[in-house]
Amino acid sequence: VYYSKGGADMEDRVAKTSMLGFAVGDLDAYRPGGDCIVQAVKTRMVHAAVRHLLPQSPGWKQVSGGQTVPISQADILVTWHSLATYAMRKLREWRIPLSTADSAAYLHVWQVTAHLLGVRDEYIPADWDAAEAQSRQV
Question: Residue 25 and residue 19: Cα distance in Å, rounded?
């Protein structure tokens, strides 16, 4: 079902993921006029639909790699790290000056976003060292 309805279209999936990334990066992300919560809810709804529909697809068992339910905590964290941790890594690599407070604030925005996306709190990295370590694992 998911594949036949366009779920395998990676360009579309990246575009939709980017919408969440842009919303998180907006100055008003979590303010009343911000779009982050709306984008997170939309993402959760799509994830719920995929979790329900994809296992019903005839080809799911052949491509699932033994995974019984699509979009696991690890799957979400892979994407999370491709946005949050990757960006922080690049800021450091490019020697962009960031205060400790700004670095912590940036992580906090992404921690809140992970929580809104349904990542269990025990899997949300507590600091950038933990994020880097987890990124290497997932």
Answer: 10
> Using CA atoms, how far apart are residues 78 and 120, in angstroms rounded to an integer?
14
* CA–CA separation, 109 and 88 (whole Å): 12
* Higher pLDDT, residue 90 or 9: 90
- Report percent pLDDT > 90 for the chain: 72
Whether residue 50 has pLDDT greater than 50: yes
According to DSSP H, which parts of 26-96 are helical? Answer: 36-53, 60-63, 73-93
pLDDT of residue 13: 78
DSSP letter at 90 equals H
d(CA 61, CA 122): 29
Buried b (16+ CB within 10 A) or exposed e, 51-65: eebbbebeebeeeee
